[in-house]
Amino acid sequence: MTVTATPRPTGHPGYAQTLDRLPESAGVARSLVRTALAAWHQDEMTEDALNIITELVSNAVDHARSPSIRVIVTRPADGRIRLGVVDRSRKLPEMRTDSIGDQVRGRGLVLVEALSDRWGTDLHRRGKTVWAEIQCEPAQ
User: Fold this and answer.
1) What angle do CA 43, 47, 50 make, to 5 degrees?
2) Segment 59-113, tens digit of pLDDT
3) Could you say which DSSP state residue 1 is in?
4) What is the pLDDT of residues 31-53, one digit of tens each?
5) Where residue 139 falls among pLDDT bands split at 50, 70, 90?
6) 3-7 and 127-135 strand pairing
7) Count of beta carbons in the 10 Å neighbourhood of residue 107
8) Best CA proximity match to 140, nearest among 48, 61, 68, 41
9) What topology is assigned to 3-135 in CATH?
10) Domain residue limits, the chain
11) Closest alpha carbon to 130 in 69, 80, 45, 48
12) Contact 130, 84 (CB under 8 A)
């Protein structure tokens, strides 16, 4: 697994890592997010960002079709951080607000919506990126 950092239009590097589509990959994704936020001096965003990336990775682990996923952490604009997970499935995520008995899984996107300023899905020719953005302090 290699972490790549590439320049972005905001002058901040973007961080990305390809991971096996396994539940354990959520821990690696959290480490990547921590690294990016520390590099950008955005430590106050850590708790929400870690919860968001955990849910996005969990959804990809449950629903993607390929053996790997790609986690991406970028700053698409000054004052915003974008967390994303790329997988090979073109099936759009569904937000579940209903309760099915004692089932506690399946409502992660409700948490993503609550913790982020906006979220969405970008379809690609061979898959999709599910992403969430959070507001952060502008660059110093």
Assistant:
1) 105
2) 999 988 889 999 999 999 889 999 999 999 988 887 766 555 555 555 689 999 9
3) -
4) 999 999 999 999 999 999 999 99
5) confident
6) unpaired
7) 16
8) 41
9) Heat Shock Protein 90 (3.30.565)
10) 3-135
11) 69
12) yes
Give dist(CA 136, CA 2) in Å, integer.
26
Residue 57 and residue 85 in contact, taking contact as beta carbons nearer than 8 Å: yes
Position 8 pLDDT exceeds 60: no
Neighbours of 74 (CB within 10 A): 22
Tally of residues, the chain? 140
Would you tell me the crossing angle of helices 46-63 and 108-115 to the nearest 10 degrees?
150
The model's pTM: 0.85
Three-state DSSP state, 46: helix
Q: From CA 121, how far away is CA 81, in angstroms rounded?
A: 16
pLDDT at 95: 75
Contact by Cβ (8 Å): 2, 18: yes
Integer Cα distance of 126 and 133 in angstroms: 23
Calpha distance 123→121 (Å, rounded): 6
- Cα 54 from Cα 8, distance rounded (Å): 24
